[in-house]
Specification:
Order of helices and strands: HEEEEEEEHEEEHH
Number of strands: 10
Structural class: alpha+beta
Distance between the termini: 26 Å
Number of helices: 4
Length: 203
C-alpha cells in the first residue's frame, strides 16, 4: 500500500500537548458508566467522544461448533429495530482477560458452555466518537444443545437464536439482513484467522 500525506492534523497536535485540554461535559453513573469528553482544537471547534465504563474493553464472543456459527436477534432501542449479532458486552477485568470474559458472556446470554477459546484481535466500533475497544474471541461450544436465555434482565432484547453456516452468513450480508457493524468486523477477523491457519497448514 502507499500513503498520501502527511496532512495537517489539529486534533493530533492538541493531543500531543503535554496537558491536552480535555474535560468531561456530561456523565452518567448508572449501568454502564458513560462520560462525554470534549477537547477544543481551535477557538471555534471542539471534538467530542463517548467513553463507556471508564475505557474498560468490551468483548465479542463468536460461538462456533464445527462449521456452524450462533447469532442472536436482539432488539436495539437506539435504532428501533432488531439486529443479528454475536453475544457481546462490557468486560469485567476482575474476572480475567478476554477469553474468560467471552466465556462468561456466552453463558450469560445463551446458557451454553464454552470450550476452547481463541483471541482473534481487537477492534474499535467508531473511533470518531467512541473511545473504547472490543476484544473478539472465537469460542468453541456444542450447538447440539439448544441455546436459551435464562435471565431476561441479563440480556434484554434477545428475541431468538439463529444457527448458520458460512454460506448462510454470506447470504444474509448480501441481503442486508446482517448489518451490525461489530458483528461484521468480528466476521472479518474470523475470516483472516481461518485464512492464516489454512496458509500455515498448506506449508
Amino acid at each position: 500500500f502507499r500513503t498520501l500525506g502527511p496532512l495537517r492534523n489539529p486534533a493530533r497536535s492538541a493531543m500531543t500537548n503535554e496537558n491536552p485540554p480535555t474535560s468531561v461535559v456530561w456523565e452518567y453513573r448508572g449501568g454502564p458508566h458513560l462520560a462525554l469528553w470534549r477537547m477544543p482544537i481551535s477557538a471555534e471547534r471542539s471534538i467530542h467522544w463517548l467513553e463507556a465504563q471508564e475505557g474498560t474493553p468490551g468483548v465479542i464472543a463468536i460461538p462456533r461448533d464445527g462449521e456452524r456459527l450462533l447469532l442472536q436477534r436482539q432488539f436495539r432501542p437506539a435504532t428501533g429495530r432488531s439486529h443479528l449479532q454475536f453475544p457481546r458486552g462490557f468486560g469485567e477485568p476482575e474476572l480475567g482477560g478476554p477469553l474468560e470474559n467471552a466465556k462468561r458472556e456466552l453463558a450469560e446470554e445463551t446458557s451454553l458452555i464454552a470450550g476452547d477459546a481463541f483471541h482473534l484481535g481487537s477492534l474499535y466500533a467508531d473511533p470518531g466518537i467512541l473511545s473504547g475497544r472490543a476484544d473478539v474471541v472465537l469460542v468453541e461450544t456444542d450447538l447440539s444443545i439448544a441455546p436459551r436465555r435464562d435471565d431476561e434482565w441479563e440480556a434484554p432484547g434477545i428475541e431468538e437464536f439463529v444457527i448458520l453456516t458460512g454460506g448462510g452468513v454470506t447470504s444474509l450480508i448480501q441481503q442486508g439482513q446482517l448489518d451490525d457493524a461489530l458483528t461484521l468486523a468480528a466476521l472479518a477477523l474470523l475470516d483472516a484467522h481461518e485464512a492464516h491457519r489454512a496458509e500455515r497448514t498448506s506449508h
